[in-house]
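Database export, one record per block. Field names are fixed; values are copied verbatim from the stored entry.
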Amino acid sequence: MSSISTSTSGFKRIWLLLAATLGGVAVASLRPGRGRIASAVSGRRLSSRNFRLAKLGARSGGRYAKYRAQRIFADADRSTALDNEFQMRTAAEVTATLGQMKGAMMKIGQMASYLDTGLPDAVRTTLSSLQHDAPPMSAELAAEQIEAELGAHPDVLFARWDPVPLASASIGQVHRAITHDDRAVAVKVQYPGVAEAMSSDLSNADWIFGGMATMFPGLEKGPIIEELKTRLIEELDYELEAQRQMKFHNYYKGHPLVTVPAVLEELSTRRVLTSELAEGVRFKEVLSWPQAERNLAAETLFRFSFGAIYRLHAFNGDPHPGNYLFQPGGRVTFLDFGLVKEFAPAETKLFEDLIKHMVLDHDAVAFRTLIEEAGLLDPAADFSDKEVIDYFSFYYLYVMEDKPVTIDADYASAGVAQLFNTGSEHGSLMKHLNVPPSFVVLQRITLGLMGLFAQLDATANWRRVAEELWPFVDADPSTPIGELHRNWEIATGRRERPF
């Protein structure tokens, strides 16, 4: 058994600059001509939102400068104490500010909580509250939102209604209820004004990617921005989410390990989504389970996430821990389908061919030709095939060999560095890279899953599991979970791809 680990010094605490970066975005948005959106939200409200970010950035930037100055003459023990103090104070302030703001800014905080596995446990715990325990709206306001959408107070719509939310996140919160026909349900209610807040945040995307384009001249920022905007705006449409959730529910109905709750359409609208109430424990509780159980949970996450690409031509692109509930034996309930990327057959064929050339055939020339045609690498980039393969092979390391591999914290952090650290040995090559729209969500969920697997110390023969999922291999089951899945496929007639 091997452990994939890569040195990532300088990137394990890249999150410490998060608050200052957010402040910079806010300052940019307050310049004349920035941050204007066509909406009913007053300029005062949007300016207040941006000033909160600017205030966060200013405070954090000042604290960072003070921290760096104090550290110059500190001994080892004092340096460690300063590190811990700065980390905790910054994490607490970022969590409090973004938790109140909701929208796209809160999503950035959620991602920071699970992508950087080099974070101290105390800091991770602070940030992780953004995953499902953000500050909720009041019970009265939630009831008003439901009445506006469904035409009656929740006490009338439901036989029982719990005004205390089960969970609260970036664009809505979830309440438990019992229907009049005695079904336990989860009711997701969108925050009022969150659409305007999201639009305000997205209006600054050009500025953010302007800085990215300076680091990565090869980036075509326009298509990337449009892809992100499209996916995030779609999250606000609960009717669209209901359709996608039912697509996954109908496909996985009766699965021995995967559960996708059914939607109650008669109690759902564009801003309210009512689903069957799911059972299970949160991700943080799974971390205390025996390693064998953590491995089973990771295997189900892996099979669901990557199997859906080939079976449904769809990808559930929001892998943060708050979107899963777990039970022993590898049973997982998938809760949120707001961010789903649907792929054309030609796109999934591209993913398949990249895997064939890199993993199965080890054909550097064919792989390079394909990534150039796909728009990932500038064809004029003057690098050898070996240099190109050395860079891109990182993304396939855990499936390159037929053996058990543990995905550890260093590997997950290295994945972030592989994308953003232009000071690495691959820095020159990275300046010629692009991220076509097909790969934007793919990269997000891959990095997100690696972050979750690293926290689980997940071990599996990922190559064999992947070969079961890859339709161009379609290998026999290699694990007990694989056997259960294959038997279910045969029993339900799902052995053939539906497309």
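Remark 1: The longest strand covers residues 172-178.
Remark 2: Residues 43-72 form the longest helix (30 residues).
End of record.
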